[in-house]
Design a protein that fits this description.
Layout lengths: L2 H6 L5 H9 L1 E5 L3 H12 L4 E5 L23 H12 L4 E5 L17 E4 L4 H11 L5 E5 L12 E4 L4 E5 L12 H20 L8
Parallel strand pairs: 1-2, 1-4, 2-3, 4-5, 5-7
Antiparallel strand pairs: 6-7
Length: 207
């Protein structure tokens, strides 16, 4: 157990931390939602993550994604893995610098107990739900968190015992700019669902 993990024992019992660390997580997308979800999870003790994204870091990403100026032009998943390992060097981070589509989506997250949908496009979000929604996995999706106004409150909607949607359902990034406060707030809420499900023993397995 490294110093970071020892520090977590101030907040978790040894049994709870062990439970968190045993959970396997898949994150589809490493942008504003995905990168911040991953950071929240690792800081909360999760250490088995599989992250997929095909994109590289651009200047327009820096306003809300967990990247920095010296990351420009680099693959997001490679940079994110390095960042996460600076938080917990013992984390097991598997990354795929590729695009998920309907032909290959079943090849990913096979061992995941929890799958996060963190894509931008509605079609990709639907693909994740259709691919993994029929299993016993916890599925957590983000929809509607753009803009700067808080008149549309970010909420957690529980579709079933294992399916959750976080966001306001209204402010699409196609219509409004994705800005740090609401994007990061949505990512934090999504990560908090995973933590609650694990600590309340609500994870359903992978089959």
């Amino acid at each position: 157990m490294n110093e970071f993990e020892k520090g977590l024992l101030k907040y978790f019992s040894e049994d709870d931390l062990r439970t968190i660390q045993d959970i396997r997580v898949g994150i589809a997308g490493a942008g504003g939602l995905g990168s911040n979800i991953a950071v929240c999870l690792v800081r909360s003790g999760f250490k088995n993550l599989e992250i997929l994204d095909f994109d590289v870091v651009e200047a327009s990403n820096l306003n809300r994604q967990y990247y920095f100026m010296d990351d420009l032009g680099k693959p997001k998943v490679a940079v994110l893995k390095d960042r996460l390992l600076t938080i917990n060097p013992s984390a097991q981070i598997k990354v795929f610098n590729t695009k998920m589509d309907r032909d290959n989506c079943v090849d990913f997250f096979k061992e995941a107990d929890i799958v996060f949908e963190a894509f931008d496009r509605v079609e990709a979000k639907k693909m994740v739900l259709e691919t993994f929604g029929g299993s016993k996995r916890i599925i957590i999706c983000g929809v509607g968190m753009a803009g700067h106004k808080n008149e549309n409150e970010l909420k957690i909607r529980k579709l079933s015992g294992r399916h959750f949607i976080v966001g306001d359902g209204e402010t699409s990034i196609k219509c409004m700019p994705p800005l740090a406060p609401r994007v990061m707030a949505c990512a934090s809420l999504m990560a908090s669902i995973a933590l609650e499900c694990v600590l309340e023993n609500k994870t359903g397995g992978r089959k």
